[in-house]
Write a structure and sequence with these properties.
By secondary structure, the chain is of the alpha+beta class. 25% of the residues lie in helices and 16% in strands. It contains 4 helices and 7 strands, in the order αββαβββββαα. The strands form 2 sheets. The protein has a 5-stranded antiparallel β-sheet, with helices on one face. Strands 1-6 form a two-stranded antiparallel sheet. Strand 3 and strand 4 form a beta hairpin. The longest helix is centred in the middle third of the chain and has 13 residues, at 63-75. The radius of gyration is 19 Å and the shape is globular. The N and C termini lie far apart (64 Å).
Length: 178
C-alpha cells in the first residue's frame, strides 16, 4: 500500500486565510527574472510584481467582456494563457511580440516594462488578493496568442453569439435560414 504523498507548502510564511498547498509551475514567470522577488512576496501573502515585455505582453480588456472572450478562445481551441482580473479590467498575458501594433478599441496594450502586480496562482475567482484573481490560472509556459485574442474580442464586441453544440445548434441554424 502506497502512502498518500504529503503536499508541499508553497509559502514559507503563509499570511493567508488558508494555506496554499501544491507545487508551483513557474515557466510563465521565469523569463521575467523576478522569480525570487515574486516568491518572497507570495510567501508573505502579498502581490508579487513582474514587468511586461520580457516574458509576455499584456492586453487589458473590460472585465465585463473578458469572460466571454475566454470562452470564445477555449471554444476555438486557441492558445490561452493566464488571465488576471484587476481593479482596472482583465489582463491577458500574451506571447511576446504578439501584441505589437495592438490597436483594438475598448482594449489597451500595456507598455513594456510596466510592473504588473500578481497574486499567487491559487488566487482564482472568487478568492482575491489586492482586488486581483486569476480567471485562467498560470501553468507551465502557455500564453495567449495575440491574433486569436483580437479575433475573439472582435466577435464579442460585434455581439456575435456562439451557437451551442448538439441538436439545439442544428435547430437554431435551420431557423436562421428561414
Amino acid at each position: 500500500m502506497n502512502p498518500t504523498p504529503t503536499p508541499t507548502l508553497t509559502h514559507t510564511a503563509a499570511d493567508l486565510p488558508d494555506l496554499i498547498l501544491g507545487p508551483l509551475e513557474l515557466g510563465w514567470l521565469r523569463p521575467t527574472g523576478r522569480v525570487p522577488d515574486v516568491l518572497r512576496a507570495w510567501g508573505h501573502g502579498a502581490l508579487g510584481e513582474a514587468p511586461t515585455g520580457l516574458a509576455w505582453d499584456v492586453v487589458r480588456l473590460p472585465t465585463g467582456i473578458a469572460y466571454e472572450t475566454v470562452r470564445r478562445l477555449r471554444a476555438a481551441r486557441a492558445p490561452l494563457g493566464p488571465v488576471l482580473v484587476t481593479p482596472l479590467g482583465a489582463a491577458f498575458l500574451l506571447a511576446p511580440g504578439s501584441a505589437d501594433g495592438w490597436h483594438v478599441p475598448g482594449s489597451t496594450r500595456l507598455p513594456d516594462r510596466t510592473l504588473v502586480p500578481l497574486p499567487h496562482p491559487d488566487y482564482t475567482d472568487p478568492r482575491h488578493l489586492g482586488g486581483r484573481s486569476w480567471i485562467v490560472r498560470p501553468t507551465g509556459t502557455q500564453l495567449t496568442d495575440g491574433p486569436a485574442l483580437r479575433d475573439a474580442l472582435g466577435a464579442v464586441q460585434e455581439g456575435r453569439f456562439m451557437l451551442p453544440a448538439g441538436p439545439l445548434a442544428l435547430l437554431l441554424a435551420h431557423r436562421s435560414q428561414d
